[in-house]
Amino acid sequence: MKIVTVVGARPQFIKAAAVSRAVAAYRAAHGRKALAETIVHTGQHYDDTMSKVFFEELKIPAPAINLEVGSGTHGRQTGRMLERLERVLLDERPDWVLIYGDTNSTLAAALAAVKLHVPVAHVEAGLRSFNRRMPEEINRLVADSVSTLLFCPTRTAVENLAREGITRGVHRTGDVMYDSVLFHAALAEQGSHVLARLGLEPKSFYLATVHRQENTDDPSRLGEILDAFQRVERPIVLPLHPRTRKTLGQGLERVGGRVRIVDPLPYLDMLVCEKQARAILTDSGGVQKEAYWFGVPCVTLRDETEWVELVQAGCNVLAGADAAKILETLRGIERRGAANPPTADPTLYGDGHGAEAIVRILAGG
Region 35-58: what's the mean pLDDT? Predict the structure, then answer.
């Protein structure tokens, strides 16, 4: 059995690390010929801080193939990936193409595989924001529609697919990012000194991330978010995504207040900052979940989220790009104390063994 895993962006590296560990464990138990994995990196994230450091830190096998596609418009980037992935699949002749999430790499791999009649397995299937202006939403819809196996992180994801008439090949496996957090949290506590390096005390600061196109490419929305950041009463650590840095350009110097701009953080440092933050402000899907797993209140800088369970449980507040609402939400967190309400179901995202379940299904066991 041969799997070609296609990744291209930072969150996918984290998910792939969990599944690759499970593949290695399966091979150890059933023989090296039982399952083989070839990792293909599209090069969608190519900056060392967003790519290379993750493979090293998470001990993911180095990609056998790097397509080095780089940045570009959606059409140009996806087209380059599609062309180069087609050649890879013709050469590798895998039994499965394994894709993750909702990026252009996800879309290109799904299209390349299905056109060559190679079955597609989609990790994190069934997520919906119901906002088709988001490129990620289109990528999800297309990937799910052509996948043979759909690995859903939550009950809601399964229900979303059922409403669209997709029930065959659907499995609720839990969230492999939860696997990764459980595996790496203790290592992060022992090996990361990021708080000392940044001169921060636990629970004394906010952590923020901003990278979604809907925020970075809209000057009004980005301006509102930064206005809120400049008016908060605690330090804000802002690991700046390359897209956001490029958008701000020379305006970066005008980001004042108590905002501490740093380069994108390695995964273990990021986990420590998330766990020790007073609250988290983000437009990232993965960071929303990591905040929940660490019991840290989350303010989501979007008008909707795929992770509706967290909003329903009161762990996550949708503040959009409204400075007044962002600040009001933070004041509410400060009044009640920096802890999530104890109402969230601890099994929302599975039991921490989602990657093992995925590998068993792929291997036919």
Answer: 76
